[in-house]
Amino acid sequence: MRRVFVDANVLIAGADSQSGASNAVLKMAEVGLFQIVVSEQVLDEAERNLRKKLPRALPNFAAQLARLRLEILPNPAVELVRPWMDIIEAQDAPILCTAVSSGVDRFITLNTKDFTPNVAEQSGLTIQTPAEFVEEVRRLVTNNLR
Fold it and tell me: What is the CATH number of the domain that holds 44?
């Protein structure tokens, strides 16, 4: 099964909106199109930000987590993160490190300010926004149904 690393902002947006692309990514994972991979840091960040900024979305977040059967990876050791700090902000380096070392097929994020095409090139990851990923899946399904 394909594995897709999802950033905290996608989990937050998916919990807060029933109609956006982030929610669509989560729904596709729920029906088994791919496995969502996250790190402990991603889950902690998502929950912390929901509690602080969008507490109304916490029940939906908890329900989604129960349905998704996430693959949760431990946070990487500091020495493994250091090399990534040269290409991305220190707070995002552990997330990038985990995604790269996990061998995922895609990295999905709304953070295009930090997870840039340059970061994608240097890390070897295919980095997409939820909307770009949904469009890619749509094209694949459409082409295979013809």
Answer: 3.40.50.1010
Query: Backbone dihedral region of 35: left (phi > 0), alpha (psi from -120 to 50 degrees) or beta?
Result: beta
Cα separations in angstroms, 108 against 9, 26, 135 = 9, 11, 13
Amino acid of residue 83: P
CA pair distance 4, 8, nearest whole angstrom: 13
Residue 55 structure tokens: 């507490």
How many independent structural domains does the chain possess?
Answer: 1
| pTM greater than 0.85 | yes
Q: Is 43 exposed, middle or buried (0-12, 13-18, 19+ CB in 10 A)?
A: middle
The pLDDT averaged over each successive group of 10 residues in the chain (146 residues) is 96 94 97 96 97 96 94 97 96 98 97 97 98 95 79
- Which range marks the domain in which residue 65 is found? 3-145
